[in-house]
Amino acid sequence: MAQVSLEINGKRVCHEAPARMHLGDFLRDQARLTGTHLGCEHGVCGACTVLLDGEPVRSCIAYATACEGRHVTTIEGYDDDPVMARLRPAFTHHHALQCGYCTPGMLATARDIVLRLPDADEARVRIELSGNLCRCTGYMGIVAAVMSVLAGLRAQPDAAVSALRDALAQGRGAAPAAPQAAPAVFQAFAPVAAPPAPAAPASAAPVPDAASPARAPGKGNRIEGGFTVPFPPDQVWAFMVDLPAVAACLPGAVIQEHEGDRVKGKIAIKFGPMAAAFNGAARLERDDAAKRAVFRGAGQDSLSQSRATGDIAYLVHALDDGHTRVDVDLQYTLQGPLAQFSRSGLVQDFVRRMIADFGKNVGARLGSGVGDGPPAQAEFNAVGMFFSVLWMRIKRWFGRAS
Ligand code: FES
Ligand code: FES
Question: Whose CA is nearest to atom 4 of ligand 2?
Fold first, then answer.
């Protein structure tokens, strides 16, 4: 792993990343800027095009570590850009997008054409755009949109666009100006300093405020859930930060390495048509005083090569003398073939059901006495869970219809 520091859309961003992680994955998984799309991941389709120091590059074939210290502009970073201000309405007017998958890369390339080739004719625009593939084959609208912006600038030059063209001609790059206010990026759980409390161990890391209503909205998928157990909060908290014990309650999860608050392991999921076995690593950030923690992890499915990144925040609080509520807030992004399932209501029900089953397992283990020997792994009943979720859905559909 290496520490990578980039300026993305005018904002300094630092994250750990594997040495071979490409810039596209870094932008999506680490910086959580999911406007950059990945298609072929071989430098062919152009969907992943972003600006590096003002010039278009394929982010899927640029190592993130090789971009250290450089300026990256993604589709989220053009708020104040005078060329994008013309391209956006032109794309709308000429119906230049259908599914929109190629659009972030098309726009980055189109902006480059407008700046570099003010006199381009249609044939030249088509050649310049040939490195960006549109799977919807919507080329006529895209070419028409670029041509209309070029024609508009020829008829009525724009001083801001001319300044960018001059900067490019002088080799100074044509990156858009940094936005006045940085665009909101995916920030699942904003870190806050742990409140001073003498009882908190000195090593407790600051963790997000899981209960804060002012939390920044994320761009990934979000599922909230929770469970109640008939035990006092101190006992539940001690259990919830014992990683092997927690993993033993999560159906399908196995810890392979465990050191302090870091774990490596795998979780196998089978649900209807979806089967996955994610291998990955995670770390726990905890605030013992407030009894809240965030489990941050990332993994890859060995079957479909899909990648998942997620944060699970939980907050343990007392309901009454003998009962404790654990609120769980999951935010995640999925990339690859499994991404098609990530937003479906069925998957959301499935995850809520997983949380409920996890709560039952926690209650059962607390009742049987934590620490009495190694934890027995919770069994995963895929068929039972599939039909249970389906049944929940059917009941809801009929409830709505009646
Ligand atoms: S995803 Fe980068 S060129 Fe296709
Ligand atoms: S609009 Fe669908 S891929 Fe281009």
Answer: 134
Q: How far is the CA of 97 from the centre of ligand 2 (A)?
A: 6
DSSP, collapsed to helix, strand or coil, labels residue 169 as helix
CA of 96 to the centre of ligand 2 (A): 9
Please list the pLDDT of the chain residue by residue as tens digits (402 residues).
889 999 999 999 999 999 999 999 999 999 999 999 999 999 999 999 999 999 999 999 999 999 999 999 999 999 999 999 999 999 999 999 999 999 999 999 999 999 999 999 999 999 999 999 999 999 999 999 999 999 999 999 999 999 999 998 888 777 887 655 444 443 443 444 444 443 433 333 444 444 443 344 445 677 778 888 898 888 888 888 888 888 788 777 888 888 888 888 888 776 655 667 888 888 888 888 888 888 888 888 877 777 778 788 888 888 887 889 888 887 777 776 666 665 556 666 777 777 788 888 888 888 876 545 555 555 555 556 556 655 665 666 555 544
Choice from 60, 74, 102 to test ligand 1 binding pocket (greatest atom count within 8 A of CB):
60
The verdict on 250 and 334 lying in the same domain is: yes
Verify that 62 and 154 share a domain, yes or no. Answer: no
Question: Are 253 and 147 in the same domain?
Answer: no
Total domains, the chain:
3
Is residue 186 in a domain? no
Task: List the domain range (segments joined by +) for residue 123.
Answer: 82-169
13 and 150 assigned to the same domain: no
Q: Is the CB of 98 under 6 A from ligand 2?
A: yes
Q: Is residue 32 part of a domain?
A: yes
Gap between the Cα atoms of 321 and 301, Å rounded:
42
φ and ψ of 72, to 5 deg: -115, 135
Query: Are both 142 and 159 inside the same structural domain?
Result: yes
- Would the CB of 134 count as within 6 Å of ligand 2? yes
The side-by-side arrangement of strands in the sheet containing 221-229 is 221-229, 323-335, 307-320, 292-301, 274-287, 262-271, 253-259
Please state the pTM of the whole predicted model: 0.51
Ligand 1 neighbour 45 (Cβ under 6 A): yes
CATH code where residue 116 lies: 1.10.150.120
Answer yes or no: do 391 and 350 share one domain: yes
What distance in angstroms lies between residue 57's CA and the mean position of ligand 1's atoms?
10
Is any ligand 1 atom within 6 A of the Cβ of residue 79? Answer: no
Residue 294 backbone zone (phi > 0: left; psi -120 to 50: alpha; other: beta): beta
Q: Any idea what DSSP says for residue 26?
A: I
